[in-house]
Amino acid sequence: MGTLESTIIEYQPDLTNAIDTVWVALCAALIFFMEGGFALLESGFVRSKNAMSIIAKVFIDIVFGGLIFYVVGFGIAYGASNGWFAFDFGVSENDLGLGLTVSNQLFWFIQLGFAIAAISIVSGALAERMKLWSYTILVLVFCGIMYPMVANWV
Questions:
Q1: Could you tell me the pTM of the whole model?
Q2: Are 77 and 151 in contact (CB under 8 A)?
Q3: Of 79, 72, 112, the residue nearest 98 (C-alpha)
Q4: What per-residue confidence (pLDDT) applies to 102?
Q5: Nearest 5 degrees, angle CA 106-CA 110-CA 113?
Q6: How many domains does the chain have?
Q7: How far is CA 54 from CA 11, 43, 93, 141, in A?
Q8: CATH number, residue 118
Q9: Which residue ranges in the chain fall short of pLDDT 50?
Q10: What is the domain extent for residue 54?
């Protein structure tokens, strides 16, 4: 019995990492499923001629929001901070100082889901009120600067 306990204790960090990775990946997938829900909800609230515009906004959220959050946003949210502002590019391999038991890439992915969900909520308020190119600029500013700055403060 002593060898089993010592083996479990020896592999505890690996088991914790494996379980946490599966859990966080599952949660990230569920967060991204909300995008489909936002698309269906918002397209149900608009006139039928604007339903495709709402679906396009979801794709803009994921593509442009994902790119800018990867390049700039994650570094602003979780880079080296002076207490008010941080700046870095991409997803760092360095320890973020958060005590994570998952990889930085998986942490980026779940945080991307939250950033995209936040801008999708704004998308519902702008339904039928904004052109796609101006909405794209809003997504870039929101996912690249606004949301990450507040995430850094938190």
A1: 0.83
A2: yes
A3: 79
A4: 83
A5: 140
A6: 1
A7: 48, 6, 36, 19
A8: 1.10.3430.10
A9: none
A10: 2-153
